[in-house]
Amino acid sequence: MDLTIALFVSFAMFLIGILGILFKRNALIMFLSIELMLNSANLLFVAFSRYWGNQVGLAWVFFVLVLAAAEAAVGLAIIINLFRTKQVVDVDQYNLLRG
Amino acid sequence: MQLLLLTGLFLPLAGFLFICGLNKILPRRLVEVAGPGTILLSFLTFSYILYCNNQGVPLPHITLFTWIPLKGLWTDFSLRLDHLSLLMTLIITGVGFLIHAYSVGYMDHDEDLARYFSVMNFFIFSMLLLVLGANLLVFFVGWEGVGLASYLLIGYWYKRPPAAKAAKKAFVVNRIGDLGLLLGILLTYSLFGTSDIQEVCQRVGKEFTIGAPLITILSLLYFWGATGKSAQIPLHTWLPDAMEGPTPVSALIHAATMVTAGVYLVVRMHPVFQMAPITLQLVAIVGGTTALFSALCATSQSDLKRVLAYSTISQLGLMFLATGVGAYFAAMFHLTTHAFVKALLFLSAGNVIHMMHGTTEMDKMGGLNKVFPKTNLLFLVGALSMSGIPPLAIFFSKDIIIESVSGNTLYYYAALSVSLLTAFYLTRAYMLTFRGPCLVKDVKEAPVVMLAPVAVLGLLTVFGGLLGFAVNQAPLLMQFLAKDSLAFMAQSFHVTISMWISILVAFTGVTIGAFYSRKSLAIFFNSFYINQLYQALFVQPCRAIANCIASFFEPKIFDSSLSLTQDASYKTAKILQELQNGQIRSYIAWLVVGASFLIIYLSIASL
Amino acid sequence: MTMIVLGLLIVISALGIILLKKPVHACLSFLLTLLGLAGVYLQLNAPFISAMQILVYAGAILVIFMFVIVLFQDAYLAIDEYRAKSKPFWLVLSATLLIVTLTLLGTRLKTLGYQKESLPEGYGSLEALGKAIYIDFFFPFEAVGLLFLVAIIGALYIGKKVQ
């Protein structure tokens, strides 16, 4: 029962994260949605680790956590750089790489 | 012996390559010597072969290399010399040498002499290849070669539009005939598996009955080819126009050698023709009709060379008439004597034309007997011989022909009429050119280099008849040719009533010609308006189609299909370009789509 | 029961992230999500993970986010002046596709069954986790450490002010 709820919550978080990336134009909110998606993956790991009863999932949660931290740091550095160049946070205006 | 044959054949080719290749650096003298020189050496080689053969050495047969090693089409490049082809090679190289020597004088004002002599040498080589080929494919190579040389030489003065047009016409009309010959060769391959002439002639009698439809078709196809090359009706229109070329060219190609290739083909393949009596009848009818038709046309021409051109067509018609009734020896004998006499006539006409600086219209000539005494004599000899006055050469051969066709009243009267008309128009030409008031001044007689070959031909004309004349035995030429095939043994010269009739006819013609020379009829002058008919029937529609294609099809259909392709790819590229608009969210949308498909696939695959 | 409540909390605060206008509010909503997640991890017998979640995510990552958002907190107003360039049609289409996919996946996973009632000894404790990391997954551990180093250097370099 717990597992099913955890699954649904995880899917919902993932979906909300994707919707956030697709429909929000603020770069910071997009990044926040990415973190939300990572958290949904974490929840899945923990839930299934509890289901199978071994420590594998928990170990992987550890690693994902570290990765999320590193990625957040680098990503925000990039966003700060972007903001310094263009003075806007609207991702639709960063379109110089068009064909 | 084989080496001699190869030398004789390939010397003119060597001459062609030599003069053609080293065109720019050779001095004029060398070209003037090398051109005729190779032909003279070739003639001497073939004469030596004749001499050896008389001593008993057999004639050679060489296979140079395997050309087409395919099962149904096996062909070797082989050459066979038998008596018929030896006769032809002697005529070709002998008369050819005399004409080459004559050209040295005729073309002395011309700059581009190397081109002339190289193509003339190439022509001799092709003609030799034609008569020496042991199978029909080598024969065809020579056939095409002489067609090409004829085109190049008629259009020798290519900067003149009439010459270029005449050359094109000659080639195209020839081509129509070549189609028939090619179809005939292919049919030969399919019927016999080989095109070796000796084999085909031996097998056709055993494998097919007389009058078999396939053999009739085969012989008709051969005759179609012969019609094109030998200027019979309906493919005769190119020969009068071919007189735009230099006079030696007209003498060599269109009187003595190339146009006789058709007659040679029929005589060579006579076993095939004898299996198809319908074709033989057709050959005789076409030959007779052509002879009569062109003789009529020749009576009203105003251009000296055209008279001689129509005369050639007429005499070729007589030769075909002879083959049509089976008189092959008569045809070959007439071919030989005609070669001498026609060359004589053309070259003496060339003397006149050259010394009058290029005029060929007889209206401008007259009374030239005082200015050109030697040419006058030579032309007179030629004209009298061609009219059939004994004991000059043509009398014997023409009489044999008339005698062979005497069985059929239609042919007989046709031949007699042709004889009469020939005498008439040649005498008329002589009178218009050499008799009457003299209109020109300060022209002089031709130089020795132009007179000497003509004189040799004159001698041959006077004494050449002896080749076919003998009392109480087969004449020399017949004995010579009969070593090949007994079909040559049929006819010989007899002193009969028909001979006296033909002599009478000849004298009548000469007399009429001497007195009634000034008149001419328009229908004959325009040669029955056949040229105009062909123009309307064939040339104009083709030109219309070509115009239609060039102005309508090509820009609208072909070009627009190309631009359609171009447009299509451009528009596609434009559409695809929209995919990459630099918007991150669009890219993410595509990512999501892909990821969902992946998830669907993975979730279904675990079924 | 607690699971359901916590799940609802998570979903509502996740919705809040994307629906709230001011970025600061969105960040706070994120904090609420993280706290809910920590509760869920506790419920699932993983105390260490939940503590780590609070420490790392809520304590470090969220703080960084907060810093940057404070830096740009007025910039979100300028977004409405510029017309969106990506066509909303395609975005909606892809979102719909995703919803369909996840529903499909969900229906297949419904039959997964209940979890084990009995857990092994020391599940979720620090000792067991340490054993798993240092013995079974030693290589990923070292790799992640290296990655962390690279990330630090990278972040420092990218964020440097151009002279």
Describe this protein's structure.
The complex is a heterotrimer of chains A (99), B (607) and C (163). Chain A has 99 residues and is mainly alpha-helical. Chain A has helices spanning 2-23, 27-52, 56-86. The radius of gyration of chain A is 17 Å and the shape is elongated. By secondary structure, chain C is an all-alpha fold. Chain C is extended, with a radius of gyration of 21 Å. Chain C folds into 2 domains: 1-82, NADH-ubiquinone/plastoquinone oxidoreductase chain 6, subunit NuoJ (Four Helix Bundle (Hemerythrin (Met), subunit A), Up-down Bundle), CATH 1.20.120; 125-163. Chains in contact: A-B, A-C, B-C. At the A-C interface, helix 1, helix 2 and helix 3 of A face helix 1, helix 2, helix 3, helix 4 and helix 5 of C.
Please specify the SSE layout and strand pairing.
The complex is a heterotrimer of chains A (99), B (607) and C (163).
Chain A: H1 2-23, H2 27-52, H3 56-86
Helix pairs in contact in A: 1-2, 2-3
Chain B: H1 2-21, H2 28-54, E1 61-68, E2 75-80, H3 83-106, H4 113-132, H5 136-154, H6 161-192, H7 197-207, H8 213-229, H9 238-241, H10 247-256, H11 260-268, H12 270-274, H13 277-298, H14 304-324, H15 328-355, H16 373-387, H17 393-404, H18 409-434, H19 448-463, H20 476-482, H21 497-515, H22 522-525, H23 530-577, H24 584-605
Antiparallel strand pairs in B: 1-2
Helix pairs in contact in B: 1-2, 1-4, 2-3, 2-4, 3-4, 3-10, 3-15, 3-19, 4-5, 5-6, 6-8, 8-11, 8-13, 10-15, 11-14, 11-15, 13-14, 13-18, 14-15, 14-17, 14-18, 15-16, 15-17, 15-19, 16-18, 16-19, 17-18, 17-21, 18-21
Chain C: H1 2-19, H2 23-43, H3 47-71, H4 88-109, H5 126-136, H6 138-158
Helix pairs in contact in C: 1-2, 2-3, 5-6
Beta-strand residue percentage of chain C: under 5%
How many β strands of chain A by DSSP? 0
Q: Describe the global form of chain A.
A: elongated
Total domains of chain C, how many? 2
Q: Radius of gyration of chain A from the CA trace? A: 17 Å
Q: Report the sheet with the most strands of chain A, covering strand number, pairing sense and barrel closure.
A: none
Overall outline of chain C:
extended
Amount of helix of chain A:
over 70%
